[in-house]
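Course assignment 3, question 2. Fill in each field.
Student: A.L.
Task: Predict the tertiary structure for the chain below.
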Amino acid sequence: MKTILNIIWLVLSGVWLFLGYILAGVLLCITIIGIPFGIAAFRIAVYALWPFGYTTVERRDAGAGSCVGNVLWLVLAGWWLALGHIVTGIALCVTIIGIPFGIANFKMVPLSLLPLGREIVPTDAPFATR
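Answer field:
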């Protein structure tokens, strides 16, 4: 079932969100200071391309640096990406078939706003340790 949902997601909104995150990652990687943010954007791009079957969990070893980084991310790229998820989610919720995909978009908004200190893991092992 996850595969079918992911294929429909890919056609309806996954490709466009993936390209948005890739663009943000490339723009952020232009400067040396932005490389960690670009890596976060690339990581979320893969999640935005194929989200069903994965979830995000809080990293216990994330410190104050991720908090400061999240503030910078929010200003530089986070709110644009969150706006993209909100607009796409509203557009998908217009039809009955698109409602689960719209809800999935709304679930990605917090991750797009504050991605540092989060880890993407399979849904069958969200509490597994590394």
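Instructor remarks: Residues 25 and 42 are 6 Å apart (CA to CA). Residues 64-92 form the longest helix (29 residues).
Grade: pending
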